[in-house]
């Protein structure tokens, strides 16, 4: 009986569109890009926690893009790629979870500010608040997608 290698387990080329953990690449692109776009188009206050949210969304978007093209071009044929796949998606899930919580707390505090009518807010603060709410939802969906990808990648890694 032949031993299972990572080349047998990890898909390459167009097979990534049919394997269960790798099918999450596309929704990770979509929801990660939406978080990036929504946060960038809102009132970025306070700057430091929102900078973390932007860093995470850009880091994960670019990392997923790089990872996607490595898988698509067949560069994942070594024995270490299964463990790297698990590690990247676990780190991305933890990063997204931390930034989602920060974004939710900032959005809740912004909602209290909007409802109390504090002067000095932009005139379109209600629209910005709705964009923040959408960014929170998309961020938690992206967290879920990265977490599921990490779990299924860990299952695939244990099989190899």
Automatic annotation (TrEMBL):
InterPro entries tied to this protein: MAL, Marvel, MARVEL-CKLF_proteins
Protein's cellular compartments: Membrane
Topology in the lipid bilayer: Multi-pass membrane protein
Keywords: Lipoprotein, Membrane, Transmembrane, Transmembrane helix
GO cellular component labels: membrane
GO molecular function (one): structural constituent of myelin sheath
One GO-annotated biological process of the protein: myelination
Pfam families: MARVEL
Major location category of this protein: membrane
Transmembrane segments: 23-45, 51-74, 86-113, 133-155
Residue ranges of domain MARVEL in the record: 16-158
Top-level taxon of origin: Eukaryota
PANTHER family per record: MARVEL-CONTAINING POTENTIAL LIPID RAFT-ASSOCIATED PROTEIN (PTHR22776), MYELIN AND LYMPHOCYTE PROTEIN (PTHR22776:SF12)
Family as reported in the entry's similarity comment: Belongs to the MAL family.
Name of protein: Myelin and lymphocyte protein
């Amino acid at each position: 009986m032949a031993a299972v290698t990572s080349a047998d387990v990890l898909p390459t080329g167009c097979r990534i569109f049919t394997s269960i953990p790798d099918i999450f690449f596309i929704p990770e692109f979509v929801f990660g890009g939406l978080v990036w776009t929504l946060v960038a188009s809102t009132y970025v206050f306070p700057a430091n926690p929102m900078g973390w949210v932007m860093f995470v969304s850009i880091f994960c978007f670019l990392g997923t893009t790089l990872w996607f093209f490595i898988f698509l071009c067949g560069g994942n044929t070594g024995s270490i790629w299964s463990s790297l796949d698990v590690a990247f998606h676990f780190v991305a899930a933890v990063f997204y979870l931390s930034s989602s919580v920060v974004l939710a707390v900032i959005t809740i505090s912004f909602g209290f500010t909007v409802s109390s009518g504090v002067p000095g807010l932009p005139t379109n603060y209600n629209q910005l608040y709705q964009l923040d709410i959408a960014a929170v939802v998309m961020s938690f969906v992206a967290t879920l997608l990265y977490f599921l990808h990490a779990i299924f990648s860990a299952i695939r890694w244990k099989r190899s």
